[in-house]
Amino acid sequence: MNTTVRWNKSKVREMTILAMFIAIIVVMGFVPNLGFITIAGVSATLIHIPVLIGGAMIGRKSAIILGLAFGFASFARAFTSYGFDFLFVFPWVSILPRFIFGLLIYDGYQLARKVFKNRLVGLIVSFFVLSMIHSLMVLPMMVTAFPVLLGNEGWASLASGASGEFSGALDFMGSINNFSAAFTLITGVLLSNSLVEAILAGSIGAIVTDRLIQSRLGEQDIPETNE
User: For the chain, what is the domain count?
Assistant: First the structure.
């Protein structure tokens, strides 16, 4: 009976933590310049950090749910965005990579922890690598959306904004017509926004997660069977 009660309490606790992280993701997704810091039509992403923290803390299934929450928040936000951010109205840009991202978080963290034999080091390495993987999935999907946007005047008008504020971004999209140009775009973003995002995830995100895990479980880490 005591075992059942403890199990139920554990599940309620996990559901509460999951709901809290979903709420954080929603708030970060829709409050301007909180989860997505936009500069000249291109956003640096911070919202992936609570996804990483929650996924590492409460398991594989929860990480997938948080990844999807991230994706749907990005998808909904895109309808009020312009320039490059508007590309996230396409589900394969906003939702699919974030689902895969969530799927990888828990196992990526556990693998790094086993390899480095240390929880904090495992968190630092896995969060940095997972953040870069996230960018490597999203950026090529953005490039695949360019032809759809550029071939449709209605989409292009929405993406450029009523005032044409981001027409320069659309002109640049129009230049992405071959692999070399797409590779240049991806490399440029990886060396700027994505690297900063990964460093923040591997430093702030990893330290916060380590403290939360220690507070919740003492010296015991998340059980390997946690899903």
Answer: 1
Domain extent at residue 175: 2-217
Kindly report the CATH number assigned to the domain that includes residue 74: 1.10.1760.20
Distance CA 32, CA 16 (A): 26
User: How many angstroms separate the CA atoms of 53 and 67, rounded?
Assistant: 11
How far is CA 193 from its chain centroid?
Answer: 13
**Per-residue pLDDT tens listing for the chain (227 residues):** 466 656 567 778 888 889 999 999 999 888 876 766 665 445 567 889 999 999 999 889 999 999 999 999 999 988 887 667 778 888 999 999 999 999 999 999 999 999 999 999 999 999 999 999 998 898 888 877 777 766 666 666 666 664 444 455 555 555 555 656 666 766 776 677 888 889 999 999 999 999 998 887 654 444 444 55
150 within domain boundaries: yes
Tokens of 222: 């998340």
pTM of the prediction?
Answer: 0.81
